[in-house]
Amino acid sequence: MVTRASFLKRLGSAHPILLAPMAGAGGVGLAAGAMAGGAVGTLPCAMLSPGALRSQYSELRARAAGPINLNFFCHRLGTEPDDSAWRALLEPFYAEFHVGPPTTPPPLRAPFDAAMADLVEELRPEIVSFHFGLPDPPLMDRARGAGALILASATSVAEARWLAAHGVDAVIAQGWEAGGHAGRFLGEDPAAQMGLMALVPQVVDAVDVPVIAAGGIADGRGIAAALLLGASAVQIGSAYLHCPESLIHEPHRDLLASEAAEHSLFTNLFSGGLARGIPNRLMKALGPIREEAPRFPYASTALARLRTADPEGFGPCWAGQSARIGRPLPARTLTEHLAADALALLGRTDTGWQL
């Protein structure tokens, strides 16, 4: 069993805190600030081309010292589904804004592939993390061969066991509370997903690798609770959305500080995959879940021009259930406060993260 102290040493960060990957919200500035405060900096890569990722990685290396986590999706694209029912459902909105489905579809969220494996071998990040399971073994072997620590998300104990059996170095236990896309990949009923308080200790007991707690952690209380439940580290996303370095639009930022943030829901409207966000016009008009929305990641295509016309109404406002706890602090300051508050609660201000 890897101890918490040895895992923190392997992470290479001052604190057992990882910035969550948040495509469209995270980026170089947010990661650099989190790293300056002692956390692991993360770049969300599923919506980046290899060239864009290389550029962001180089910029982040120039701006901050410390470990970098590159996060990739592992979904299967397959044959493009028929989205005619989805487009028909959106027709009243098209008429309102005098637009239609895009004539040239925008890039989809892409799974980890050989081109990205080439880039991992070139860049040699300290950490590579995966969402929606793992890539095929040859691709995963290439990431590991580049010297990266391999992490992956689990939304159930069964998924955690599967990941551990397939060679990850640590499991990210993602609770029901987490914002953005749930990393579910074994096809279990979404209604059966556990909250973090129940999930973490059961995953800790079920696997022989370190566990990183994710979902609903937004302050020192959450960090301390997760560590006492047996987690070796935490991954935090929504609390960082409040930071000035996050890339979210101002209406999204305003919603995070409002009572609306207390009522986030899972929806499949924006990508076709279940993801937690604050209800907006599209979710309220259609309901958060629709059978007409094609499977992940294809639902986003038909929304592209509506999102351009009205980003607040037709773009996602991802947020976890503890999003409102966050404070509009610079990422470095927020990270330092998170660590100090957790250490004080754990009575470890002088002895560090030893428990």
Helix segment tally: 15
Q: In percent terms, what proportion of residues is strand?
A: 5-15%
Q: Average pLDDT value?
A: 95
Low-confidence region ranges: none
Architecture (CATH level 2) name of the largest domain: Alpha-Beta Barrel
Protein name: Propionate 3-nitronate monooxygenase
GO molecular function: nitronate monooxygenase activity
Catalytic activity: 3 propionate 3-nitronate + 3 O2 + H2O = 3 3-oxopropanoate + 2 nitrate + nitrite + H2O2 + 3 H(+)
InterPro entries: Aldolase_TIM, NMO
Structural overview:
This protein is α/β, with parallel strands linked by helices and 355 residues long. The chain folds into 2 domains: 4-76 and 111-259 and 321-346, Aldolase class I (TIM Barrel); 85-107 and 265-318, no CATH class. It has helices at residues 4-11, 28-36, 50-63, 84-97, 114-123, 137-145, 157-165, 196-206, 220-228, 238-241, 250-256, 281-286, 299-309, 311-314, 331-346; strands at 17-19, 41-44, 68-73, 127-131, 149-154, 170-174, 180-181, 211-214, 233-236, 265-267, 275-277. The strands form 2 sheets. Strands 1-9-8-6-5-4-3-2 form an 8-stranded parallel sheet. Strands 7-11-10 form a 3-stranded antiparallel sheet, with no helix packed on it. It catalyses: 3 propionate 3-nitronate + 3 O2 + H2O = 3 3-oxopropanoate + 2 nitrate + nitrite + H2O2 + 3 H(+). Its cofactor is FMN.
